[in-house]
Amino acid sequence: MRVVYITESHEARAGGIPTVVDELARQVRGQGAAVEIVSVGHEPLPAPAGAMLRNAVPARLSGPWRWSADLKRHIEAAAGDGAFRIFHLHGIWLASHWYGARIARQRRIPTIMSVHGQLEPYHWTDRGLLHSLKKSLYWRLIAYPAFRTVRVIHAITPQERDHLSSLFRDQEIVLIPNAADLEEIDRALGRLPDPVGRESVIAFLGRFHPKKGVDILIRAFAEAALPRQWRLVLAGTAGKAAYMSELQRLATTSPARDRITFIGPLSGAAKWQFYRTAAVVAVPSLSEVIGMVNLEAAACGTPTITTYDTGLLDWEAGGGILINPKVRELAEALNLLCLADTTEWQRRSLAARHLVETQYSWARVRQLWWNLYRSVLSVQERIAALG
Question: For the residues 71-87, what does the mean pLDDT come to?
Fold first, then answer.
């Protein structure tokens, strides 16, 4: 079996999709499959060990579609004669996805498409009326006609599955959640100094993007009735200048301004230490399909506050708190979790880790992917046998 992951970018700045693709590639390689990644970008990350990366540099005038003549050539090379191959598209809006679906159809390669939340209602209207109109036209005239023959549409959360079912009415929708690599996380934690206790810190880690709800978090922190030792530490990659200016304005005019700190992006040991020493991680996203921050923090034993919009409908069973992305609801959740006594906090910490172990670990999820890949490939083999 050869699995070809076709994605819009394998660059660090592309956010969470390259991370998901790399981890999935590692897990599938571990099961014995050959793996290729086809991407577009100027500075791609290295491929995981044992995987092949075919990266195309976007044409100078390709615009946001990120077209490249090399892209088509790379996808055709990855397709080969089509035998014993699976195409797995990650994303939906760019040239790599369109070419991948088109070439898969021509060579009768079974295809799976992971949408990664890109068709959620928030993303149809988040950039204004004109952008929404352009998106709708592209969907109707170009995207959907290309993807209507994709064998399986992958949803990450139950909400995404329900929404995708309304867009792909005649196609199979399969639900497989994101996952955390607990073995890797535990190795990383084992290399850190022994913890001396949790700090009175509410942590945020992620992109500074409006959909992440950082503005809601800054307002809620000021509104929460927390003792003065509590601090809000915001870590992540800077977003667009206008939004960063708004966040800085909110922070500097907040009644809690002396307790709000922005720091840069974190990775490696610094990231795991950040999770492990915080008392609470807050992820008040307006739109998200699970969000790896929730899984990673919970794997470190840190309860998180997140929203129903992340699709983690079982999160409160794991010690976390689910809210709507509203200032008052988040402030009340911060009060509840930050002011919990030691026994209650430890109960939530253990429950958070247990939920990830049983529902969102690669030990469970990789078998779901392996079973899906085998099933779509067996359908291809039966079709080939019939001529």
Answer: 92
